[in-house]
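[Discussion] Sanity-checking designs against the backbone

I'm trying to build intuition for which residues belong where. Below is a C-alpha cell string of 224 positions. I'd appreciate it if someone posts a full sequence so I can compare it with mine line by line.
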C-alpha cells in the first residue's frame, strides 16, 4: 500500500505540526510515549520523526486502522513506533506492553503489587468529544496508573469554557456530534479538569491552538 492510499484525516494533517511545536517545548530529549486513540497514526508518525529520542506506543479501541499505522511507521522507517495495541480507555486495567519502572526505584511501592508500564507522555487527541463521557474518567484514571512520576498527559481537541464565548464553528460541531450520537459532544473543560483531579492529576498547561482547539497538559498533583 502506498502512503498516498492510506486512510488519512485532513484535520490531522493540518494540526500535527502546530501540536508538535508545543510538544517540543514541553518534552525532554528522550522518553516513552503512549498514544491513546491513534486513529490513522498521522500524529504519532509526525511526532516520532521529529523527536528522535522518544519511543512511541500507538493504541486504539478500534483495530481497523492498525494496518495504516503500521504502514505509515514502516514507510517513515521508524522502528521507534511499536505495533499498535487494542485499548479501550474505560477498561479497569490497561493491557500494555512497555517500560516498567523498577520497583526499587520507588521506596513506597508495595512489592506485592505488580508493576505496570510507565510512560513519560500519554497523548490523546480528539477522543473526548467523539466518545461517551465515561471515557474521560477512564482516560484520567488510566493515565494516573501509567504516567511516570514526572510524566504528562496531553490532550488535544475542542472544549467549552464558561468564561470564553464558544466559537460558532464549535457550537455547530457540537450540535452535529450530538445528532450523530447523543453520548458524544464537546466537553466542558471544567468537567474534564474535575475528572483529572479525582484521579490525582492536575491541569497544568492550556494552550490555544488553531481552529478553536486547546492543547492541555495534566501532571500528577504535588503530594500534600
Ligand atoms: C476522531 S478520531 C481521532 C484520531 C486521532 N487521535 C486524531 O486526532 O486524528 C477518535 C478516535 O477515538 C477512538 N476511541 C473512541 N472511543 C475510544 C475508547 N473508549 N478508547 C480508546 N479509543 C477510543 C476511535 O476509535 C477513534 O480512532
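Best answer:
Here's mine. Compare freely.
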Amino acid at each position: 500500500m502506498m502512503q498516498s492510499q492510506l486512510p488519512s484525516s485532513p484535520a490531522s494533517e493540518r494540526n500535527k505540526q502546530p501540536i508538535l511545536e508545543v510538544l517540543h517545548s514541553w518534552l525532554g530529549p528522550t522518553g516513552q510515549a503512549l498514544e491513546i486513540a491513534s486513529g490513522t497514526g498521522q500524529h504519532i508518525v509526525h511526532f516520532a520523526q521529529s523527536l528522535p529520542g522518544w519511543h512511541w506506543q500507538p493504541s486504539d479501541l478500534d483495530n481497523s486502522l492498525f494496518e495504516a499505522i503500521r504502514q505509515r511507521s514502516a514507510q517513515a522507517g521508524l522502528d521507534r513506533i511499536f505495533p499498535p495495541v487494542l485499548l479501550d480507555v474505560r477498561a479497569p486495567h490497561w493491557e500494555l506492553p512497555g517500560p516498567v519502572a523498577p520497583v526499587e526505584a520507588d521506596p513506597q511501592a508495595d512489592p506485592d503489587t505488580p508493576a505496570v508500564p510507565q510512560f513519560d507522555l500519554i497523548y490523546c487527541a480528539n477522543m473526548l468529544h467523539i466518545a461517551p463521557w465515561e471515557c474521560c474518567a477512564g482516560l484520567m484514571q488510566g493515565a494516573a496508573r501509567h504516567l511516570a512520576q514526572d510524566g504528562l498527559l496531553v490532550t488535544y481537541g475542542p472544549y467549552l469554557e464558561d468564561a470564553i464565548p464558544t466559537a460558532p464553528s464549535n457550537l455547530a460541531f457540537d450540535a452535529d456530534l450530538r445528532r450523530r450520537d447523543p453520548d458524544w459532544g464537546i466537553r466542558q473543560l471544567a468537567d474534564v479538569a474535575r475528572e483529572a483531579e479525582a484521579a490525582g492529576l492536575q491541569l497544568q498547561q492550556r494552550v490555544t491552538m488553531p481552529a478553536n482547539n486547546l492543547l492541555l497538559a495534566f501532571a500528577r498533583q504535588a503530594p500534600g
